[in-house]
Amino acid sequence: MSESKKHQYIAVAGNIGAGKSSLTGLLAQHFNWKPFYESVDDNPYLADFYEDMLRWSFNLQIYFLSSRFRHQKDMLEQQVSLIQDRTIYEDVEIFAKNLHQMSLMSDRDFSNYESLFKEMSYYLRPPDLLIYLRAQVPTLVRQIQQRGRDYENSIRIDYLERLNNLYEDWIDRYPHEKLIIDTDDIDFVNDKEDLGRIIELVEQRLYGLFN
């Protein structure tokens, strides 16, 4: 096996309900990568944030940023090939930016947040491949409803639309290796052929086939 195929770092990005966790698990199983999943259960600011978003948005995003940075550092120190569900880039490019655009984070706080991320980004290793799961809002809504998480019941359609627009803007500017997968008309969880096509695309991008 060549050096380029050792200790690879793959990340899966996409809107809420796009299927990131499912694809992370399936690709980890196929390629024998170690999966790392996003965890929000231990976030001490979430409850306060939902009570008063304007007051706590900066604190919440700083916590996400620091914990994601620490998580990525811990992951890459393990010297294994791995796949990550959601990236640190999405914190600043999607979720913090959305709060700012909705006037739920002040200009001063957002500027401070962006400056901190820029300093941290010098110490980040970008993924060898970023897989972006693109899905239209009806697909997102259907999949959110199917998984039945109580805390997601209040997610609004216009909120998902805003996030989708930010994702599209970000992925257009993303400067590293990426693979965009349109998921509206495929079912990689239940259809082995759909999953197989994704696996082929990942192999092409990672190992140079047909590039």
Structure description:
The chain contains 8 helices and 5 strands. The protein has 211 residues and is an alpha/beta fold. The protein has one domain (3-207): P-loop containing nucleotide triphosphate hydrolases (Rossmann fold), CATH 3.40.50.300. Strands 2-3-1-4-5 form a 5-stranded parallel beta sheet, sandwiched between helices. Helix 3 packs parallel to helix 5 (107-121), helix 4 runs antiparallel to helix 5 (107-121) and helix 4 crosses helix 7 (157-173). The longest helix has 24 residues, at 53-76. Residues 1-5 have low confidence and may be disordered.
Secondary structure layout plus pairing:
Elements: E1 9-14, H1 20-31, E2 34-36, H2 46-51, H3 53-76, E3 82-85, H4 88-101, H5 107-121, E4 129-134, H6 137-147, H7 157-173, E5 178-182, H8 192-207
Parallel strand pairs: 1-3, 1-4, 2-3, 4-5
How many strands, which pairing sense, and closed or not: the largest β-sheet? 5 strands, parallel
Cα-atom radius of gyration: 17 Å
Shape: globular
Number of helices, counting only DSSP H or I runs of 4 residues or more: 8
The assigned structural class equals alpha/beta
Low-confidence stretches: 1-5
Distance between the termini: 19 Å
The CATH class designation is Alpha Beta
**What's the overall average pLDDT, rounded?**
89
Helix/strand order, N-terminal first: EHEHHEHHEHHEH
What count of domains describes the coordinates?
1
CATH architecture: 3-Layer(aba) Sandwich
Question: At the third CATH level, what is the topology name?
Answer: Rossmann fold
Total number of strands:
5
Strand content: 5-15%
The CATH fourth-level homologous superfamily: P-loop containing nucleotide triphosphate hydrolases
- What is the percent of helical residues? 40-55%
Question: Largest sheet, order of strands side by side?
Answer: 2-3-1-4-5
